[in-house]
């Protein structure tokens, strides 16, 4: 069986960096806090900043939705939030063949879904088959990318399962820890994608759905008899909470006021201006940086002015990222310094991601974009203007982009903002109906670059193949050696910036406002909330 040392090497390339960041950020551990022994019972009242869009973890895209779905589904493995190490969960051990094409998992005995059916090798097979054959890349882009090249799952025996790929897929072990590849019961895998989203799913997690109102609210209740938690959890047995009530509170000030008044126990997207009120009433702000692709602008290179690579490259030095953080976000956030965040294995700092408006103007001038009478540049009668599609998945998005808009105008670029709902944003991204789009992608592995930028994956750039970039993705999938993978990730990041496929802005941090009644509200390795160890005063 694969040992812990090799597991660590396979999953993480910068453990020292991850550990340092995790230690520095509040709320990133799996243990409780210093307020006394945990109490059992009670309901945690949680305020989401955005409506949950789908009850199915495989189809969940926003952090707010994943906060809900993560609680009802277990994965084959987990990722330790402090070290990045891949640790047992539903699988108690695993083997990876030397070519990284076959992954064999030995499941824990005695585990059941909430409908009483067993979590066995057949359940794993049906879950992965359903993602590839029924959901696909449009409905489930992240898990579909994790299963790229999937040739099938073999039931070796009731508790042993082998997942096979046509090509090397070294990222899959870390992917097996994500909620998107969480294992689901046969009854769920038989449903249509739409039914899975709207009516809840059957998982083996520490909580189950008691009620789910699409785009409105969700209530989870404790799974009686739960006894197979992840090795990264802080205790064993059932979760402490009786229930979690999620409600949607879009307005930041209302969320803050609800925590300070005790109407809610915790809320998402607590911005710097919210901290004094929460802290003055005995609460706190818990933060952790997100791994993955930074927040940034992704241009559609197939249309409009962004088809010009010189324009795309010029946008990168035109943005003052420090001003974005200092003006809008505060000390718990970082300016982007590359395509990946610093917490991501394979992160590469990029000199190109430096504020240099003179360079931006020079690049545009050399490409023939000349300032017009109102300062907006023109070329052959075309104004240097494009729109940025975005949704309010993070509370600071609109304010950040309004400041970016002002910064770009100073170098002669007219950026228009196109705020839409999350479902509309996803629909238009999938159809290519945009000039540029703004978002981030979270994952604790540098392979998120392939998911985002490969022509065989999501490719919102609508780009044609870039040989050096695609070769980097083939390379990182072909080796479990950390140093080799990081070299391929560095090559990919350089190609992404050289071709202007991503214009980084800020690194996302999860900032959660927690009232005095709630304790051990913790983040997992991908900066999503895990409520298994959470408890509340008074039961």
Q: Keywords for this structure?
A:
single chain, 539 residues, 18 helices, disordered N terminus, 5-stranded mixed β-sheet, alpha+beta
Structure at a glance:
The protein has 539 residues and is an alpha+beta fold. The chain has 18 helices and 27 strands.
Radius of gyration: 23 Å
Total of helices = 18
Strand content: 15-25%
Distance between the termini: 42 Å
User: Tell me, what's the shape?
Assistant: globular
What is the arithmetic mean of pLDDT? 91
Reported for the largest beta sheet, the result is: 7 strands, mixed
Number of strands: 27
Poorly predicted residue ranges: 1-32
Write out the strand line-up for the largest beta sheet, numbering strands in chain order: 8-9-10-1-11-23-12
Percentage of residues in helical conformation: 25-40%
Structural class computed from helices and strand pairing:
alpha+beta
Topology at a glance:
Blueprint (H helix, E strand, L loop, with lengths): L3 H8 L3 H10 L18 E6 L14 H7 L7 E3 L6 E3 L2 E6 L5 E6 L13 H19 L1 H6 L3 E8 L2 E6 L6 H4 L10 H4 L3 H7 L7 E7 L3 E6 L20 E6 L3 H9 L5 E2 L7 H6 L3 E6 L2 E8 L9 H10 L2 H9 L4 E2 L21 H10 L3 E2 L5 E3 L2 E2 L1 E6 L6 H13 L4 E6 L2 H10 L4 E7 L5 H6 L13 H11 L4 H17 L4 E2 L1 E2 L1 E6 L3 E2 L2 E2 L5 E2 L4 E2 L3
Parallel strand pairs: 1-10, 1-11, 18-19, 18-20
Antiparallel strand pairs: 2-3, 4-5, 5-7, 6-7, 8-9, 9-10, 11-23, 12-23, 13-20, 13-21, 14-22, 15-16, 16-17, 24-27, 25-26
Helix pairs in contact: 11-13, 17-18
